[in-house]
Amino acid sequence: MCDSDNNQGFVEDWAVTRRTMLAAGLMAGLSSAAKAAISSVVEKDVSIKTPDGTADAVLFHPAGNKKWPAVLVWPDIAGLRPVFRDMGRRLAAEGYVVLVPNPFYRSKKAPVVDGSFNFGDAKAREQLFGYRAAMEKGVEGDAKAYVAFLDAQPQTNKRRKVGVQGYCMGGPLSFRTAAAAPSRIGAVGSFHGGGLVTDKPDSPHLLIPKTSASYLIAVAKDDDAKEPQAKEVLKRSLASAKRSGTVEVYPANHGWCVPGSQSYDPASAEKAWKELLALYRRALV
């Protein structure tokens, strides 16, 4: 969980993020054609009007005049920062219009953390939790604004469904997005998502019947060890709602998908990436 003991001592070093990606992560082993596609992606900082103000975000799309399906990417609790720009760029190179917002725009423009971040630092952690608290009540309005912004882009193929994916706190935000825009969201990807199953009436798993999406729910092994029942609840919820989906515990710890994090696991991250692309190929039709 993003706010659990699993993250005590979690350190993300932005200084090594790009080097990590090039040497052992998102860029390693890619073909020359794939690297060329990434380098040709168009990237633009944008501002998006929401019910609560103006969100800063970054938009990516492939070069050229074609139209592509759109994807919204919710970052983890450290927010929009260089590594999520890199991830958005790579996804766009696969043939998607990609929006990565700053979820904490109500509190601060991105990046909201300067330099490396240590989750074991109580002061820094509580500051991020404050940003998240300010975001919580406006998530559905934000989600609708972000989907509408993507649909308004000339590069977006509005005949195709929209995908949404999230990491850590972005997992439940992705569920909430699918429920807020059920006619547009066709696929949900959650990677080491925190708080997908709770005992509260607004638990994200209870939103599944309100959506029209297919799901990929990738669970961290340490999160599963702490809440082993959660994966079974998710499986039952998908089955009961007759939604297609996969719930899988990965052999990696919370944060494994994000280069630069202490838990980054290149092999598991690449597996999750391939599964995500397969989901989008099936569901964003």
Portion of residues within helices: 25-40%
According to CATH, the fold-level topology is Rossmann fold
Low-pLDDT windows of residues: 3-9, 16-25
Strand order of the largest sheet: 2-3-5-4-7-8-9-10
Class based on secondary structure composition and strand pairing: alpha/beta
Gyration radius (Cα, Å) is: 17 Å
Binned strand content: 15-25%
Q: In sequence order, what are the helices and strands, one letter per element? A: EHHEEEHEEHHEHEEHHEH
How far do the termini sit from each other? 32 Å
Number of strands: 10
Describe the sheet with the most strands.
Answer: 8 strands, mixed
Q: Mind telling me the CATH class?
A: Alpha Beta
Number of helices, where a helix is a run of at least 4 consecutive DSSP H or I residues: 9
Number of domains: 1
Quick one: CATH superfamily? Alpha/Beta hydrolase fold, catalytic domain
Gross morphology is globular
Q: What is the level-2 CATH architecture name?
A: 3-Layer(aba) Sandwich
Q: On the 0-100 scale, what is the average pLDDT?
A: 91
Keywords: Hydrolase
Domain Dienelactone hydrolase: 56-282
InterPro entries: AB_hydrolase_fold, Dienelactn_hydro, Dienelactone_hydrolase-like
GO molecular function: hydrolase activity
Blueprint (SSEs and pairs):
Blueprint: E1 11-12, H1 17-24, H2 32-39, E2 42-50, E3 53-61, E4 70-74, H3 82-93, E5 97-101, E6 117-118, H4 122-136, H5 139-152, E7 162-167, H6 170-180, E8 185-191, E9 214-219, H7 221-226, H8 229-241, E10 245-249, H9 266-283
Parallel strand pairs: 4-5, 4-7, 7-8, 8-9, 9-10
Antiparallel strand pairs: 1-6, 2-3, 3-5
